[in-house]
Amino acid sequence: EMENTSSSIPTTPVGSGTPSTTTPSSQAKTKKKKKAPKKAKGPDKKIDKKPPGRPKAESKRVRFNKELPAMMYGFGDVRNPLPESVEMVEDMVIDYVTQMTLKAMQVSAKRGKVQVEDLVFLIRKDPKKYARATELLRMSEEIKRARKGFDDPSLIMPGPSTL
Fold first, then answer.
1. What whole-number distance in Å separates Cα of residue 106 and Cα of residue 85?
2. What SS3 class is residue 91?
3. DSSP string spanning 5-17?
4. Measured between alpha carbons, how far apart are the two ends of the chain, in Å?
5. Contact at 8 Å (CB) between 22 and 11?
6. CA distances from 78 to 69, 70, 83 (A)
7. Half-sphere exposure (CA, 13 Å, Cβ side) for 160?
8. What are phi and psi of 5, to 5 degrees?
9. Which of 16, 52, 76, 125 is 20 to 30 Å from 113 by CA-CA measure?
10. Using CA atoms, how far apart are residues 135 and 84, in angstroms rounded to an integer?
11. What's the chain's Rg over C-alpha atoms?
C-alpha cells in the first residue's frame, strides 16, 4: 500500500503537455456546478422519461400472494408452495403482462388506444391462448346480454308461470 504524504495532486491541464499541481482546496473552487434539468411544459411532457419495464422494488407493486398459490395448486403444485416459488411466478406474470401491454401499445400506436382486439391479434399464433381468449370474450358477451335482460323486462321470454 502506498501512502499519500503530499497534499498536492498532480494534474495535466488541457492543451498543456506539462503537469501542474493543485491543492484539494483549489480543486473544490474550480468544480463546475451541474445545471438543473429544464422543466417540461405541459403535464404529459417529461424530459426524464424512464424506459418502460418492470417497476422498481421500492415502488408500490400489485401483489398476487393470495391468488398465485391457489392457481399453482390447481396446476399441480403443492398445497402451500414456497414463498420463493410464488415470487418467481409473480415476477414471470408481471414480465409477461408488461411485455404484452407494450406490444399492444405498439400495435395500437395509430389509434392511440389499446383495445381487446390488439391483444387478440398478438396471441393469434398461439392456438391455446387464442382459443381461451376468444372463449372468455364470448362468455363475457353472453353475461352482458343476460344482465341487459334483467334490466329490460321486455327482453325476458315469457315462461310457463307468466302465461
1. 32
2. helix
3. --S-EEE--TT-S
4. 102
5. yes
6. 9, 10, 12
7. 0
8. -90, -10
9. 125
10. 33
11. 31
